[in-house]
Design a protein that fits this description.
This protein has helices at 6-14, 47-53, 86-96; strands spanning 16-17, 23-24, 27-30, 36-39, 66-67, 70-71. By secondary structure, the protein is an alpha+beta fold. It has a two-stranded antiparallel ribbon. A two-stranded antiparallel sheet has the order 3-4. The protein has a two-stranded antiparallel ribbon with strand order 5-6.
Length: 98
């Protein structure tokens, strides 16, 4: 709901201490005045929303595009589901073994 700034980029990279005491780091890439791509290693409860909240920003829309090496199909519409193949399940399991 507010422009994404270079100050946010720096803060995400250094790490933000959330109100539960955890310090979380993330890679924030600005893609437009009000849009960005955020990359995290391990997500916690509403982590991205809480990180932006530290800057007084409200996340209006949030979309997961991948989990590790497993990317969602670009033609998958909002609310649709896709059954994962055995190969896709292995990609997810590889992520959880880090």
């Amino acid at each position: 709901d507010i422009p994404v700034t270079s100050i946010m980029v720096e803060g995400f990279e250094k790490g933000i201490i959330l109100n539960d005491g955890q310090c979380k780091e993330a890679n924030l890439q600005i893609t437009g005045e009000y849009t960005a791509v955020v990359t995290i290693v391990e997500g916690r409860y509403h982590q991205i929303k809480r990180m932006f909240g530290c800057y007084g920003a409200k996340v209006v829309e949030l979309n997961r595009i991948c989990m590790g090496n497993l990317y969602l199909p670009k033609d998958l519409k909002l609310g649709e589901v896709k059954e994962a193949s055995q190969e896709e399940l292995q990609k997810i399991q590889q992520v959880s073994n880090y």
